[in-house]
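Researcher: Good morning. I'm working through a list of sequences from a screen, and I'd like to move beyond sequence-only analysis. For each chain I'm collecting a predicted structure so we can compare shapes side by side. This is the next one on the list. No need for commentary yet; just the structure.
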Amino acid sequence: MLDNTTWAFVGLVLFFVVLAYYGVFGMVGRMLDKRAEEVTAELDAAQRLRREAEALLAEYQHKRVIAEQDAAEIIAHAEAEAKRMTADAEVALKELIEQRTRTVEAKIAHAEAAAVAEVRAVAIDMAIAASKSLLAEKVQGKVAADLISSGVDEVKARFG
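Model: Good morning. Structure tokens for this chain:
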């Protein structure tokens, strides 16, 4: 009637009764519930952290896009400014070249005028000297002095 299997079963039942009497099942349940709550809290925290990470990622991607647009605008502005400065420099260079050309041309014209005036003065002086010597050889006396004087005055008036 009572064999070893029956006694083993009775021992097992008594073991469970003793465990129930001391509240081991309740403690195990509370421990499992506590562990389940911890796992749930960790999962909630992980989900919250994931949402925050996704929000940060989206924010930084948006900032990157804005930064790339700003960089493109800065580059475009710099290129436009460089083109404008190049055009301004070309205009300024042309103006400088034209101004220097005008200055050089004016100096050349002035030098030509001075040279012409000097040549004219030398020619007049030579003509006067030649006239004096010719008249001195051909005409003598008071008539000669009057002719020379009037001739010199006339040459000076015409060329002088």
